[in-house]
Design brief:
This protein has a single domain (about 5-235), classed as Gcn5-related N-acetyltransferase (GNAT) (Aminopeptidase, 3-Layer(aba) Sandwich), CATH 3.40.630.30. The chain is about 40% helix and about 20% strand. It contains 7 helices and 10 strands. Strands 1, 4, 5, 6, 7, 8, 9 and 10 form an 8-stranded mixed β-sheet that branches. Strands 2-3 form a two-stranded antiparallel sheet. Helix 6 (about 155-170) links the parallel strand 6 and strand 7 (about 175-180).
Length: about 240
């Protein structure tokens, strides 16, 4: 029986690998919109609640990859047939708060997700500054932005390996910490179990979280599916 490492190959992709960038974007978009895994529908809760389309989300994902790929923090997993079955995209930019709607047309509701992410990011940045006496700079933290797996089997192992690759690289390049916005409890459990990332507590000891029940566009997400978007953090 083959091990997970033999079933899948992993690599960080470069800007010259345009075909792989496209496949990574497709993998991420498919997994966020929803994939059938052994008869169970798996999707990102906010994307599902807002009924965003694959075409719009693919374009968003591809634009993100194109703008950050040179930083070297996009990794993919490929199966024995060379299909991209997992992708993790990150960057080392300091979080940016735009503060206004930037998506329009059929993708307008993506602004809801943007505001959720900006809410938790802003509170994290403010707390980080209180703790460290300075603002976050580019290159200081690795931001794990999007992870998607469309493989039927060994999904957790694929996520584990993809994150390991990026954390190892970040550590070698002097990055001080890993930051992520976890939008569902499964993501939180995986990052806690395999990578010792924790739900971030501010100086008052409170989790930084955007509760879906308090958001008129997202309060239809059942609490047993996900209760909010949390900041996850780990120093390296």
């Amino acid at each position: 029986m083959q091990t997970t490492l033999e079933l899948y190959t992993y690599e960080i992709i470069t800007k010259e690998q345009t075909d792989l960038i496209q496949k990574a974007a497709e993998c991420l978009a498919r997994s966020f919109i929803g994939v059938d895994v052994s008869g169970k529908w798996v999707q990102e809760p906010m994307v599902g609640q807002l009924k965003l389309s694959y075409e719009d989300f693919y374009k968003f994902t591809k634009d993100y990859l194109d703008s950050t790929i040179e930083q070297g923090y996009c990794a993919v997993a490929r199966d024995i047939n060379n299909n991209v079955v997992g992708a993790l995209a990150g960057d080392t930019n300091a979080p940016e708060i735009i503060g206004e709607d930037i998506f329009e047309g059929s993708f307008y509701d993506m602004n809801v997700i943007l505001r959720v992410l900006e809410d938790v990011d802003k509170r994290f940045m403010e707390d980080y500054k209180r703790r460290n006496g300075k603002e976050i700079k580019d290159g200081e933290l690795l931001h794990l932005f999007m992870i998607g797996v469309v493989a039927e089997h060994d999904r957790h192992k694929i996520i584990q390996q993809l994150v390991n690759i990026l954390i190892t690289k970040a550590s070698s390049q002097g990055v001080k910490g890993i930051l992520g916005e976890a939008t569902n409890p499964k993501a939180i459990r995986l990052m806690e179990k395999y990578h010792n990332m924790k739900k971030y507590e501010d100086v008052e000891g409170n989790y930084i979280v955007h509760k879906y029940q308090d958001n008129s566009k997202l309060n239809g997400i059942p609490s047993h599916v996900a209760d909010g978007t949390y900041i996850l953090f780990k120093e390296i």
